[in-house]
Amino acid sequence: MLPKYPGEQPRDLSQPLEQIRVLIDSKLDGQRLDVALATVLVWRSRTSIHRLISGGYVQVDGRAGVPGRKVKTGQTIVIDIPPRPEPMPDLAAGVQFEILYEDRWMIAVDKPAGLAVHPAGRRLGSTLIHALHRRYRRPDDPEHDVVPRLLHRIDVETSGVVAIGLDEQFHHLVARQFEDREVQKTYLAVVHGRPDPADGVIDLSIGPDRTSEVRLKLEARADGTGLPSVTHYRTVRANAKFALVELMPKTGRTHQLRVHLAAIGCPLVGDKIYGGNEDIFLEKMAGELSAASRARLILDRHALHAQSLRFFHPMIDRELVLEAPLPAELAELVPAD
Fold it and tell me: How far apart are CA 189 and CA 79, in angstroms?
């Protein structure tokens, strides 16, 4: 996501991006202007960044930007986004989700697999937060302008409950519950094999995988190095190939459930990184996923579903439980008797 400029009002993500302001911090200090912009505008090529600078669309503290000039902490870069020759596409196009709960302070949705919750990297539109901005933002009518704020995130391929604050005070109070691990999260996963024992606790720290070619891959460690990570699990039902497992993470590490399940020999169905052959992930990233790899994955998504959230709703003074039903493509792998 783009860095927020101090004091700037939240941007309406349902509208085209017209201008970006960046305050140079210690991470960008001393870099060439073109390199600093490449760090911020990750969706643009170096060539297009040079076109912005040469076209006069970039200023540094009110002066025309020079590609090779180094930027300093405290400087402000202003980038005017040139108008597109063709109409701007709808940034919330194609975004669909079911509303599970809504009041004046929050909304909870059942996010489908494949929908990103927010823009990141080269993904600039068609995310959940874009659609919510289109639903609630009214910048021209401040009295009725509502800024949706994510309370938490789940992966693109993970389906299920996502809660969003519609009130700044509510968001602050409930976000603190997430930070203090007072929110009870429950997931359902379809895994290869079945856990042994059927119920238990996975207490393995997590750190970067020291042998993988995939930079973002993590590993479970029994030697105590890495970040402490704990997952409670319970097998709901199983058949000859798969098991449906309920997961209750007590910590919130990146990829925690996927790493822990792989560590006990029961990787998620459809997991391209932790499913046993990370070459499938490299194929996916290259846009060359073969028919054999698709068959091995069984599903195009990893089989993880955020089933429920339980937390205290401070505005109505009671506990709230939000639940999303298990998607059909997961239920079909381990049908109930």
Answer: 44
52 & 107 share domain: no
CATH number of 52's domain = 3.10.290.10
For the stretch 39-90, pLDDT in tens is 888 767 788 888 888 888 899 999 999 998 999 999 999 988 776 655 545 5
Same domain, 216 and 105: yes
Mean pLDDT in runs of 10 for the chain (337 residues)? 72 73 90 89 80 88 91 91 60 77 97 87 72 87 89 95 96 95 97 97 96 90 93 97 98 96 97 89 81 88 97 97 97 92
- Structural domain contains residue 90: no
**What is the Cα–Cα distance from 130 to 120, expressed in whole angstroms?**
12
To the nearest 10°, the Cα dihedral for 272, 276, 280, 281?
Answer: 40
Q: Is residue 277 part of a domain?
A: yes
φ, ψ (nearest 5 deg) of residue 280: -65, -40
- Domain housing 54: 19-80
* Tokens 């992930």 sit on residue: 281
Q: Strands, DSSP E only, in the chain? A: 19-23, 58-60, 63-64, 76-80, 98-102, 106-111, 149-150, 159-165, 184-192, 199-203, 205-208, 218-221, 230-238, 242-249, 304-313, 318-323
Which residue in the list 155, 196, 209, 223 is annotated as catalytic?
A: 155
pLDDT tens per residue, range 288-316: 788 888 888 899 999 999 999 999 999 99
Q: Which residue has the tokens 């995939």?
A: 214
> What is the domain-level CATH number for residue 253?
3.30.2350.10
Other Cβ atoms within 10 Å of 45 Cβ, number:
10
Residues facing 313 on adjacent strands: 318
In a domain, 9, yes or no: no
Q: Are residues 216 and 267 in the same domain?
A: yes
Q: In whole angstroms, what is the distance from residue 158 CA to residue 119 CA?
A: 16
Concerning whether 155 is annotated as a catalytic residue, the answer is: yes
The whole-model pTM stands at 0.77
